[in-house]
């Protein structure tokens, strides 16, 4: 007999708007935290022990917050809003003060991507003012690194991920575009290394496993597109995954490389084995589109959580496949 689908271990309410983005910080010695960004401009910092919001940062003039992350420790928060601003916040010693803001000029929904290149030095990639442009700057100095614009007409940049390969000189960037194309950029050379047409529709989201050099992307269709990088940095399409219902908002891979989670427009979270893309579970709880998913970064695998944020203004937290279950 198959197991009945699990229920959330608990839910977080009171965000006051759709939950566009989630970010865990559970690896420090301190309290495990979950950061969420809402459609009403609020960033909630949830204490996962008390299951309450420890702090609410009202930023971005009430505009939708579409991405949140933290620099190194949880003392500096970085957020991106639909007010075309990226903001850095000082959270140390109970503060929530705005350190500085950066104007992106991008009217799309493309979330930023950040990469630590040395202790306390980061690269930040974001969609620029031009439709197809990706800008990269260094933080905290805000020194411009480069601007990446493809040669062909690919439409708006939809999603990006910066990463640092084990071999090779500098960082690479994966980008999904409105025409369904995926491009791999060499940031140092400011050149395209590879390009594939992954979807007939705009690429809504992508996630890339930097250890296994495999990635997956989603769109408004009923299919996830799987792909890999070969030794020459060429993107190679693999077998995709058919979905019951169309539309994926976001995907994430658990740090141990065993699970993939997808946030569905059909109100469901789907869990797959990352190795074989075998469907493992369908999590049903939300009453509207699921917009964001994130796995926690707990050091102890038994404490790992999956969080899902929905348009229904609730965050569900799940404990799944944490005891070394066969997820091949």
UniProtKB/TrEMBL annotation:
Q: Which Gene3D superfamilies match?
A: YVTN repeat-like/Quinoprotein amine dehydrogenase
Record keywords, A-Z: Repeat, WD repeat
Whereabouts are the WD repeats? 283-320
Entry's InterPro entries?
WD40/YVTN_repeat-like_dom_sf (IPR015943), WD40_repeat_dom_sf (IPR036322), WD40_rpt (IPR001680)
Q: What is this protein called?
A: Guanine nucleotide binding protein (G protein), beta polypeptide 1-like
Natural source organism: Amphiprion ocellaris (Clown anemonefish)
């Amino acid at each position: 007999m198959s197991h009945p689908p699990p229920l959330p271990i608990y839910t977080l309410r009171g965000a006051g708007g759709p939950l566009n983005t989630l970010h865990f910080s559970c690896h420090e010695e301190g309290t495990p935290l979950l950061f969420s960004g809402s459609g009403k401009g609020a960033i909630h910092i949830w204490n996962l022990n008390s299951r309450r919001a420890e702090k609410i940062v009202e930023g971005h003039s009430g505009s939708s917050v579409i991405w949140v992350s933290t620099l190194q420790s949880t003392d500096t928060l970085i957020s991106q809003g639909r007010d075309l601003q990226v903001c850095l916040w000082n959270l140390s010693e109970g503060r929530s003060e705005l350190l500085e803001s950066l104007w992106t000029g991008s009217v799309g929904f493309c979330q930023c991507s950040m990469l630590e290149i040395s202790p306390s030095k980061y690269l930040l990639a974001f969609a620029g003012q031009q439709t197809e442009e990706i800008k990269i700057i260094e933080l905290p100095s805000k020194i411009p690194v480069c601007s990446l614009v493809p040669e062909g007409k690919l439409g708006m940049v939809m999603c990006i991920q910066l990463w640092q390969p084990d071999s090779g000189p500098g960082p690479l960037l994966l980008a999904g575009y409105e025409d369904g194309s995926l491009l791999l950029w060499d940031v140092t050379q400011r050149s395209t290394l590879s390009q594939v047409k992954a979807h007939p529709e705009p690429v809504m989201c992508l996630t890339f496993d930097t250890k296994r050099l495999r990635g997956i992307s989603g769109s408004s269709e009923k299919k996830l597109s799987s792909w890999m990088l070969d030794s020459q940095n060429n993107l190679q399409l693999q077998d995709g995954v058919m979905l019951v219902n169309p539309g994926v908002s976001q995907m994430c891979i658990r740090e141990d490389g065993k699970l993939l989670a997808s946030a569905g427009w059909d109100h469901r979270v789907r869990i797959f084995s990352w190795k074989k893309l075998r469907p493992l579970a369908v999590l049903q709880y939300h009453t509207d589109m699921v917009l964001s998913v994130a796995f926690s970064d707990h050091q102890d695998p038994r404490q790992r959580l999956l969080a899902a944020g929905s348009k229904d203004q609730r965050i569900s937290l799940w404990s799944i496949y944490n005891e070394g279950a066969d997820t091949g």
